[in-house]
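pinned: reference chain
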Amino acid sequence: MENFFASCPRGLEPLLVEDLSAAGVAHAKQIPGGVHFSADWPACYSANLHSRIATRILWQVSRGPYLKEDDIYRQALAVPWPTWFDAGQTIRVDITALKCPLRSLEFITLRIKDALCDRFRADVGKRPSVDTREPEVRIHGFLSASECTLYIDTSGAPLYQRGLRQKTVEAPLKENVAAGILRFSGWQPGIPLLDPMCGSGTFLLEAAQMALNIAPGAGRDFGFQRLKNFRLLEWKRLLDTAMDAEKPAASAQIYGSDISPVAVRAALANLDRAGLLPAVTLRSGDLLEIDAPAVAGILVTNPPYGERLSEQDELADLYPHLGSALKRKFAGWNCYLLSADMRMPKLMRLTPSKKTPLYNGALECRLFEFKMVAGSNRR
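pinned: its structure tokens
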């Protein structure tokens, strides 16, 4: 068993524990921003392949106390890096810290890189080069007030990059946040789902993958595939099993619309490229005017939230109309709106039945739940 840390957007940690348990990990311990766990390598592979919530899965290779930068250098120098990857591979080192008393994280990053390269020179006579854009091996360091933990990234590119979305519109939602919202909403394949402000189609892509039982990592590669301890046969078995479980693309009662034809075209292109277009019905339309596509279902969307004062004024005018449209057109639906604008429910004149704190990137948001039963949501 090895020790790992899976990171995720704040607010999604309980869902990440569920994902990791399904992958067969042991001793999952939830903390803000992720989950510590123990697992064998097949479970690590499975978590990378199947988790819709994780951002990265990091393999712990060293942990120790420090007082100054030289302590961290010596700790990194003692790690047998050449055991796990070659000097010909490119690297990148990243550091995060919480209550670290040392002055410069950039200097610590440099010291870890120097130690790694010095270990390679001592062991094999040459050192890896740095590639900050597309490294073959990523090393992460985490500094608490008194301890340094070093990790090798088993994921590579962030796991929310499914390899599906090529065309984007302004302020796209991260895929793992969208997946988390779908889970929090209680949506299951077979229940009508609508995103009436679909943008480039993130909710639609996630829901279609779920409806067709497509593993989120089935179309991409991972950092663990570039390590010397990679077990190809075990990985191939997991991938083959996942692909055998996929369902053929067919209508799945997933609906998307947007007032912007540019956004609808982007969503159409992304769904088509992913082979998911048959599962989704797309059209152009204004949320204030469209009809519900079914008698009951789940509406999820990420409305705009303005950063400039003029945008905030426009949204203050929009929200009462939005609340009215939901009451008129979506009685019988459960509606989930993610927003960083805490004024939204009051201006919509609706009382949320639940407010779940979530982060989209660095932006603190709330997932507002409105159960649209006629006459019950007025203030």
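why pinned: The mean pLDDT is 94. Residues 309-329 form the longest helix (21 residues).
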